[in-house]
Predict the structure.
Amino acid sequence: MDQLHQQILLLFSIPIYAVLIPLEIFLSHFHHWKFYSWKETLVNIYMNAASAGVDLLLRGVALAVLMFFSQYQLHIQWNPIVYWVLLFLCEDIMFWLEHYVDHSVRVFWAVHVTHHSSEEYNLTTGFRSSVFMPFYRFLYFIPLALIGFRPVDILFMYAITQVYGIIVHTQAIKKLPRWVEFFFVTPSHHRVHHASNVPYLDKNMGMVLIIWDRLFGTFAEEMDEEPPRYGITSPVENPHHPIHSIFHEWKAIGADLKQEITWKDKLKYLFYVPGWSHDGSRQTTTQMRADWSRQKRKQMAEASAAKRKAKIEMEEVF
């Protein structure tokens, strides 16, 4: 990035480090919210440092690939305002697509799961990066280079939207005005995304705009009767171990591939949705959600029957 881009990025990001995180830590301690623990915070910082190191090594590769494809770009005379607005919209929807794939294909989930494995949720969770995502993230931006956006601007826009993506990792802010909640990803929306409650699984994939989730059927509202439980559906053993915390899902994939199964099933363990198993011993999100829905309908039917019975008994008394 050129010097101007770097200065703008620093202008956006420094307040998070210097103001917002210390403020949230203070409020958490003052109000006894218990949003933070030392172990989880240190793991978040460690994962961010590991990801930043990989990203730094591969940044030149990402830029080179995008520059290669930009040779074949459409030559459009952009109005500067239109250029930046369209770049933001295109980059945001490509992030939604990447995020959707990360949740829908197990080998990519193995990369992304580290961002979700913490059972705490605070601003430092936003730094709990998917360590190996820099190996493939830039591939989603190739269409943007072909459309006509400058590679350096693509990477700059992604960095800016990531800053926004960090600040929604908070429990300190509840619901925002309805118009904000309708268009933008808010802390409420992203709490849903990080929750392991069945109705919240694989929902609210957007980085800045929530409209993509509303359009593509991946939106879920945070419900008062369903407080988010953070983490993943199968808690990680030894979650603070510096190696296991990153590679635990890869280890699970390796164990699945060692089974005496067909090559077709081995490929499914890599590329099907997380939770798929050849013998049905595990459940996918769709299956868990179906079971949850059946249980809710059963509970509602039982509650309704109990209410009718109580009404009949009351009428008999009088």
About this structure: The chain has a mean pLDDT of 92.
